[in-house]
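Subject: complex prediction, re-run

Hi both,

The earlier run crashed halfway through, so I resubmitted it with identical inputs.
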Amino acid sequence: MKKYLILLMAVCAVFGFSACGDSSSSNSGGSSSSSSAASSSSSSQKENTDSEKKTFTVGFDAEYPPYGYMDDNGEYTGFDLELAEAVCELEGWELVKTPINWDGKDMQLNSGAIDCIWNGFTMNGREDDYTFSIPYVDNSQVMVVAEDSGINSLSDLSGKTVGVQAASAALTLLQSDEEGGQKALADTFASLQEFPDYNSSFVELQAGSIDAVAMDIGVANYQLKTRGEGFKILDEVLNSEQYAIGFKKGNTELCDIVNKDIEILTDNGKVAELAEKYDISDLLCLEAK
Amino acid sequence: MKILEMNHINKKFGDLEVIKDISLSVSEGEILSIIGPSGSGKSTILRCATMLESINGGEIIYMGQKAAYTDNNKNVIYAKGKEAKYINSKFGLVFQNFNLFPHYSVIKNITDAPIHVQKRNKKEVFEQAKALLEKVGLTDKADYYPFQLSGGQQQRVSIARALCMNPKILFFDEPTSALDPELTIEILKVIRALAKEHMTMVIVTHEMNFAKEVSNRIIFMEKGVIVEEMTPDEMFSSNNERTKTFLGRYHNMA
Amino acid sequence: MSFSTILFQLGSGMLKSMGIFLWTIVLSLPLGLFVSFGRMSKNNTLRNIVKVYISIMRGTPLMLQLMIVYYSPFLLFGMNIKSFRFPAIIIGFAINYAAYFAEIFRSGIESMPVGQYEAARILGYGKKQTFIKIILPQVIKRILPSVTNEVITLVKDTSLAFSLAYMEMFSIAKQIVAKESTFMPFIVAAIFYYIFNFVVATFMEQIENKLSYYR
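This time it finished cleanly. Structure:
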């Protein structure tokens, strides 16, 4: 018994520490700095003489390609994360990529667990809740339906079951009765079904248990590309909106630094290059001066 | 010399008085049998003597040392710490259901307490244990586990276990009542052998013939009181009505 | 993403699932034992507090408990919870499983015949000695099947850590599913969980066999 116990504890220690070491990021790089860019950005010039790098923690939904997802090597990547990496290079920060649950994003941001939400984050309608960077992608919310469903316009969705990701911008839009909101449309649906992720909603769409899924156009393009035949995007869009980086309300210092860097990256062509790589050039709303 | 004195013992379970002002004593080398119908309190008095039940009044004295007494406010005070430990080491108890430790082998059942409680020399304890196993006729069962033994064998192990603590007095609580009649004989043999060595013993039993044969003195209890104290010879010729009724009923059953 | 990469990714996620599993076992078993003492305590207040604790732990979803443990330092004290994710998961799992283990220990301890205590007392064993040498070994044998049940459930429950976005096997599987738009990683993850549990069940069976030398 005693032998087993010692063995168990030894194994446990190994797993525990390895698990602990990279629990919050995929590329912490062994740095032990825990002070965040958010809290010390004002004095970052002075403290840059320190050998320790400032960290910049980005919260993202790792199930949201092409903006943030796990690549072939198991690293987190995507348009947004590469852009964030470029910003960190400019500032000499160390990027910490923290996958979050989309439901818990506000808690993560407000508690300081992450410095920003950077992940195809729709700013429209959320202006009061976050400090936003300049918008960088023109997004629209669209409806994806089965190709042979006979649904060709939003009015065809009357009496149908529509899926949407929980806590997403599409859901907010379909529940909003303010100007530009689509609550009136949603009221014509038989029901509005919330899903934790896109994959399960697509499987249900394929299985015919729901008739349409509302989502961002970038995500829709990615899904149609990887899933192949059988789906189409309705020409009629629900709205147009912009993606921006969300900071904790009032954290303009950090926001300004990132804004300035994004302008630099736009001017030197880095942004366009990344957009090309991730096939979202059409959506980009930043223009080099 | 008195090994055990119990004076004016009272014991209640809730409002039920099960022992009513009982006094008894046991001298060195004496063998006392306690008989009586079930519910008479005979097992309870034994459990009080061994401190498994706490008394509500009276005093218990082992070899002149007070194990428990009643103060002026009628509170029963038990000996504590070293004193209690010392008193505890003076008696042993053999249970009706043996209560061997099932996860220990026979030899470990016998030797563990002497080694780890009494902190005695390992080698010496093992030698004594082997001698005791021989005495109870179980030399070849030292490495067996209790579940591999018959009831009679288990009870003999539990006697060896009690003896290995070198008690001054050994209590038996109906040592044969959980056993088949043919296994009972094995136990009685062992007790008889101990009697020959003048081991001080108190035996609660319903084996009347055995009580008559082995003991120096017999106490007949009923309803929490001692009805009659007698020598073995007096037992079957008792003039006490209640003793006669009990023995008569016993004979009819047997 | 090639199949071997998926295997590798899920494998690294499994190491983290095992980390949760082992830490939870190592912490919750002893904790459960002490909780069971509290549950059986003669002190009314202590016993009732422990009773409420067990009732809450068993009566609310583990996923919610994990979220409460993780977020409450921030919500109550405004603390930064940046590096609290893994500790929160371990604390959440440990206190939840301790409650279940406590009830199992209690059932085992209460099922012990009083004669064992009495025999130990007559032989002069102290309270601690009696419990550790006489009672606990027998209790462990008695409760082993129930413990095995819980332990197997725990292996599967580690997937609930996804709710705190901890990158254990289930979270990784979800992410690969999102990227690859196929359910295949879930199947692979299911097989991995099964293998994990097969090993755990075999290990528990070996302990049971070890203890079967007596009845």
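DSSP finds eleven helices and 14 strands in chain A.

- K.
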